[in-house]
Amino acid sequence: MHGTDPAIKAVPGFVGSNLDRVDHIRTNPALLAETFADPAARLLVLDGLEPVEVNGHLLLEPLEPHAQVEDHLLLGIDPGKRPIFARLVADLGPNLVPTPRSRAIAGLVPTEEVALYGTARSLVHWHARHRHCSVCGGTTQPAKAGWSRKCEACAAEHFPRTDPVVIMLAEHRGRILLGRQHAWPPGRYSALAGFVEPGETIEEAVARELFEEAGVRVHKVRYVMSQPWPFPSSLMIACIGQALDDALTLDPTEIEDAFWCDADQVRAAMAGDPDAPFLAPPTMAVAWHLLDHWLADVAAASLVSAGASA
């Protein structure tokens, strides 16, 4: 159920992959060589880390005749039985931050292709930044079709990392807490977020981050949804927690401003109303869908209340 426009895509950006990740091929050199030689195999073309879009689709090309399997990673096999590869890049240069071009891809190509790009970007980025072993400092080489790297010196195996991040709404008496970072565009507010630390659960991370950034204590934390975020490689874990009160004590190094917002104000912002009290996050972000989920909960609760009083 949507709390706003049902025409909006039901999933955030980078969600919805339709690839078979074929672990049995990744770990079998003979099968990998056979897959790489398949005439149906395609290369996902990237400009460094940037997507290349042509006529509403990511650019996929046949593998070059003299291409070497060790220079590529296997992203998976698509529903058309085409193996999809990406080229490994030794040096991506110093500028690896996301650009408007990479963020805009979510509005230009189908959902499954956005997910394909997100996977490729995360992996290519990881390989470029992990050419040396964190155990002994030796040189590492790609292994398992690009899904790991192995040290030539000590044989330690390293795997692509994904950093868990909680992104959450605190709810108190029909309102939710929204905040903004210093670097965001004027007027932009969103859910608060922070990295999960070693030794804590998702629920504990939600409670800690809300208290550290806004001074808000929460309980009854519930999971809503998740989103891979390939800038460079995070898993956004969206949650809602019930606040014990609405008093705020902001950490000015993390949060420029925050306020409690009711459903009508959220609905106006997500509809693009120029008189809304804040600029909503983009629809590709899980924060937008978290807000939409909360509005749907509010609407459902109103229907239950109306039915009970009828």
From TrEMBL:
Keyword NAD listed: yes
Species of origin: Sphingobium cupriresistens LL01
Cellular component per GO, a single term: cytosol
UniProt keyword annotations, A-Z: Hydrolase, Magnesium, Metal-binding, NAD
Pfam families: NUDIX, Zn_ribbon_NUD
Name used for this protein in its record: NAD(+) diphosphatase
Cofactor list: Zn(2+); Mg(2+)
A biological-process GO annotation: NAD+ catabolic process
Catalytic activity field: a 5'-end NAD(+)-phospho-ribonucleoside in mRNA + H2O = a 5'-end phospho-adenosine-phospho-ribonucleoside in mRNA + beta-nicotinamide D-ribonucleotide + 2 H(+)
